[in-house]
C-alpha cells in the first residue's frame, strides 16, 4: 500500500484567513486546502491504493539500458546519485558531480546543500515516498551514515530485474505500464511482463531527409533500408510510415506519442502534400527553418489520419516543455478538424490545466492525462482533478508516472494516488459526490479508463482483480489471466535445461512470452517482426523453469534447443485453475563428442543477453557486433562502455569475443548511396579506418589478426570487396534466412538467369534466395577466392533466434576458443539451419587441400548426416555442379534418441584442379527446407588450374560495370579505382573461362 508519512497536508485555515486570501487571489487559485485525514479520507485512500493501476506512460527501459547505470567503486550499477541525476530534480536544481575517486562521502557533502532550498518543491518531494516506504529512510532528516547505506542498498537492489518487478507490481501496485521507448523508438519490445509498447512518432514528423536523424534507432530511413522499402519520393516515405504503423499494430502497440512540444510550437498549420513534397529530400543543412516546420506540420496532420486509420489513440505532450508555444489551445483547430482521432492531452497542459479542461469539455475526441503533473506540482494536481471533474465526464481522465527508474515511478504513483484521494474526499465532504461514486471515479482514473481506451491491454492482464500481491489469477471480466507454470527438462536425466520457449494461442499467430523462475536469473524475451508473416516471439530461459499468465484458451507450447535436440511440443488448456506442464527435450545426436562446436558470427544482441541466449541454444561461440557505422566518412564509434580484447567465458564451452565491427555503408558524404556491409571479427583493438576506399581497412583488420566476413553476396559492393579486401569468410547461411517467414524478396542486387533462382509474385522465394547464395559462393570459389563459409543471423535486429543459422567448427582436442577460430579460418567447418554432418573426404576434414599429382584421382566421401527427420536430398557439389544427388528416405536409420541418421559413402573422381562440397536439405513446413553445407575440400593439380565458367565471370563483370557507372561523381577517384582494378581482374578471368556445361 502507498501509506504516506512524507506527504504532509496543511491544516485547514480559519475561515477569516480563507476569505482574505480569496479576496486577493484569482478565482482559479481559490481552492480549499486538502482535508485532514478523516475516516472518510482514510477509506478513500485505502480503496484507491488497492486498485491495480494501469500506468499510461513511463520510460522504464530494460535494466541493462538504464541511464542510471554508472561506474562506481563496486562496478557498474545504479546508485543514489544516479537516481537523483535522472530524476526531475535537476530541472530545478543542481546535482553535484561524482568525485573522480568515487568516494560517496565526498559526493554527499557536496550534494546536501543542494537539497536545502528545494525541500518544498514537488520535484524533490516526489522521491521521498520511495526512500521512506522502500528503504525505510526519512530523507528530510537523513544522516550521512543513512545516506551511505541507502546508496549501497540501491546498488544491490538493481543487480537483477527482481527489484524492478517487485516495486512496480507489488509495492506501487501497477498491473500494466505503457512504456515510451525513447532509446529505441521504432522497436516494439516488452522488457517486463507489465510493460506494453507504444509507437513514438516524434521523429517521423522530422523525416524530410536522412540527415535529420542522429540515430539509426530513430530513423524511418533506416527502417526502410532494412525492409527494402524505397524512400525516393514523399509518396515512398509515406508508405514507409504506413509500414511502421502496420508493424506497431502487429507488435500490439496500444497508442502513439509525440514529444514535439520540446522542439517547436504546437501550432500545426494544414500544409498541402505538394508543398511538403517540395521540401522532402533536402539535406538538413540546405533546408530553411520554415520549410522544415511546413514539412512537420504536414506530417503531424498525416499522423493524425493514421491514428484514426489504425485506431491508435494519440498521446500529445502539452504544457511544460518549451513553455512558449506549448499551450494546448494551439491544438484546437487540428483537434476539431480530425474528429475520428482520439487525442490524449498529456500533463494536463500544465500550467494551463483549465484550458485543457475546456478543450476536453467541448471536444468529445479529447481525453486528459494527468501524467507527470503531481511530480511538477502536487498542489496543482489536486486542483486539476477537481476542476476537470467539474468540466468533463469521469471516463475521460487517466494518469501516468512518467519516470525512468522504479523509485521515481513509485514516488510519482504515490503522489498521484494522494492527489486524487485528496480531491475526491474533499468533493464528498462538500456534498458534491457520494462516497461510492468517488471510489468508482478513482478506479476509473487509475485503471478502467485506460482499459477502455486501449482494449488490447486486456489480453495482458495478469493479476487478481483488486489485489496488490499474491498469486496471479483471474482479473476483471474481459481481462482474465491464469497461471501456467512449466519446466523444460532433459528427457533422459530429468534435469532442467536452458532452452527457447514459444507460446502460441488461443488463436493462431497470437504469441505470448514467459518469465524465468528459479535461482538462475531472468529469462530474455525476444520480440521482433516484419509485418505479420515474419514474427519471432520467444523467451530464452536460463534453466528451463518458467511461468506465464495467460487468458483461458488452448495454447501450443514449443521448446527448442540447438540443432542436436528434438523440439518438444505440447498443447495445454488454460481454464479456471493454475496449470503445470513439463516439456521434455531429447538429444538425438551429440556432435560435440565428435569434435564439432557451434558458433554465430553475425549477432546484434546486447551483451547482457548473450549468456542466457547462448546457453538456451547451446551456442559455443558468438562474435557480437559491438561497433557499427553506416556513414562512409565516420569511423565506427566505440561501444558505450569500454570493452577489453578479452574472451568472456559464460562457462568453459560457451564464450564470446566482445570486439567486432560492422561497416554497413548506406550514406556517402552524408547522402544516401548504398554500398554494403562487411564485418571485422576477433579484433584486438578498435578500428580507425573509414571506407571507401576499402583497402586500408582490410590492411588494418588483417594486421590485427582479425578476419573479414562478407555479410551478404548481393550488397552492391560485395563482388568488389572479395578480391580487393581479401575477404576471409562468406556468410553462407545469412541473416535473411529465418525460422519464420522469408521477407526480402526484392532486396538489392538480383540473381542472373543462369542461377535458376526460384521466383514468385513477391520476388525471390526463400528457396530462390538460398540458391542465389550458393551459386554466388560457387562462382567466387571457381574464380579462386577460397572463402570459408560461416553462419549468422543478425539476431537483435531481425526476427530470428540467436544461432538459427550457425557454423560448426571441428576442434579435435576438445573446445578451445583459439582452436575454434583457427578451424573457422581453415574451413574445418559446415554451416546449417537444421541438419548436422560429420563427414570426411579421404579421411580429411572440410577445408583440406589435396595436392593431386595425377590428372585423375578418386576420393572417398564418407561420414554421417543427422536430422530431426529424413532429409529430402543429399548432393555432392563439384566446382558448382551437382555431380551426385539422392533422395534416400528409405536408407535413413532411426537414432536411439530419436531423429534420423544416414551413412554417406560416395566415390568422387576428380579431373584437374577442383573443389568438392556436400550439402543436404531437410523439409520443415510446406515449401520450405532447412539445409546444411560443408566447407569445400580443394584439389590442386599442377598445370591444370581451376577455371570459372563463362556465365559466372560474365555476371561478375556486369556487376562491376554497373557499379562503376553508379559511383561516378559520388565516390572518390581512389574508391572508383578499386572497382576498376576488380573489373580488370574479372576481365582477365573471362579470357580463361571454360565454356558453360
Quick structural gist:
The protein is an alpha/beta fold and 997 residues long. It has 26 helices and 46 strands.
Supply the key terms.
12-stranded mixed beta sheet; 997 residues; alpha/beta; 26 helices; 46 strands; 6-stranded parallel beta sheet
What does this structure look like?
This protein is an alpha/beta fold. Helices cover 30% and strands 24% of the residues. The strands form nine sheets. Strands 23, 24, 26, 27, 35, 36, 38, 40, 41, 44, 45 and 46 form a twelve-stranded mixed sheet that branches. Strand 44 and strand 45 form a beta hairpin. Helix 22 crosses helix 26. The N and C termini lie far apart (80 Å). The N terminus is likely disordered.
Beta-strand content bin: 15-25%
Number of strands: 46
Distance between the termini: 80 Å
Count of DSSP-assigned helices: 26
* Biggest sheet layout: 12 strands, mixed
* Oligomer designation: single chain
Structural class: alpha/beta
Low-confidence stretches: 1-35, 464-480
Overall mean pLDDT stands at: 90
Binned, the helix content reads: 25-40%
Q: Mind telling me the C-alpha Rg? A: 31 Å
What's the shape?
Answer: globular
